[in-house]
Amino acid sequence: MNNTKPMWVWHNPKPDDIAACVDSFLQQLQQPTLIVQQGRDTTRNRLFVTLLHGNEPSGLTAIQRWLQSAQQPAVNCYFFIGAVEAARHDPHFSVRHFAELRDLNRCFYGPFDDVPGKIAEQLLTLMTEIEPEAVLDVHNTSGSGPSFAVSFSACPKHIALASLFTERLLLTETRLGALMELTSEHRPIVTIECGGAIDPQSARVAWEGLKRFASDNQVLEEPPHDWNMEVLSDPIRITLTADAHIAYAEQPCHEADITLPPDVEHFNFGRLQPGTVMAHLKTAGLNCIVATDSAGRNRTNELFEVREHHLMNRIGLKFFMITSNPVIAKSDCLCYAVIDTDP
């Protein structure tokens, strides 16, 4: 991918225009694509963004199913599909982003002079033009786990958007250049993590949420539920140091600085009691991981300790977005954690 093609705009496709499966639908898309559907109310707009990472198919699967359903949305709906070329790389949905390019969902503060920057700029220009009343950015997590939403705000509008998909909201202040960081009172943006790409429930979460987002007359007021949104605050980002080597195995790998169990994803959203063994470390110190909060403070020694080369948590923690993909663990992060204050 050496040049950014102009965004392809597809107006009001008919159900017969849409391929019968998501892989064939992806083949219909040659470049970053905007699909526009006219709503019953043409005075309001909503924006559904997905595939900012090429290995996260649930949002695209939901769009394909929605367009085949022949339903007219409540308001004008815009569907922006970003990393099409990465997703089309064989095998489909296996590449998060091309190694020589920046992560598209880290480009929304610029610069806008490279390929992912120009795609981000196209999306920003679109939002300025259509002034959407609500924006969703739909992803899959890098590892297996339940759905959750991520937001910079827990105001009623953001809670309402999150509740279309999930019962959990992660409230963050960490700035990485992601789309959701551009949220505002008049243009709420919420990220939806549907669960892992291989988790069967992820496609259902994306479909049912999109159906509500597109067809409900009002999406900025939370409807009655028989549950309350679980709000988790102040996530701490766990990363590997630049020279650290990671492995996933039942037994310690001598060439790895940190060895995690192959089923490490089962920690996602479970409460870890203090003293839980999480990994094996090659050395006796905490020199291969860094835990950083939204203020940039190093919290590693507060959260973790090492006993006989075992990495353990000092305090009760809840983890999410734990990945068993070593490439993502190295290039992005290993996971996020919040301090669990429950007794």
Describe the sheet with the most strands.
9 strands, mixed
Any idea of the CATH class of the largest domain?
A: Alpha Beta
Q: Overall pLDDT, averaged?
A: 94
Number of helices: 8
- CATH H-level name of the largest domain... which superfamily? Zn peptidases
Percent helix, as a range, is: 10-25%
**Main sheet strand line-up:** 1-2-4-3-5-8-6-7-9
Query: What gyration radius follows from the Cα positions, in whole Å?
Result: 20 Å
Counting DSSP E segments of at least 2 residues, the number of strands comes to 19
Structural class: alpha/beta
Q: N-to-C SSE series?
A: EHEEHEHHEEHEEHEEEEEEEHEEEHE
Spatial separation of the terminal alpha carbons: 52 Å
Low-pLDDT residue spans: none
Which overall shape is indicated by the principal axes computed on the Cα atoms? globular
CATH architecture of the largest domain: 3-Layer(aba) Sandwich
Beta content: 25-35%
> What number of domains?
2
Summarize this entry quickly.
The protein is an alpha/beta fold. It is built from eight helices and 19 strands.
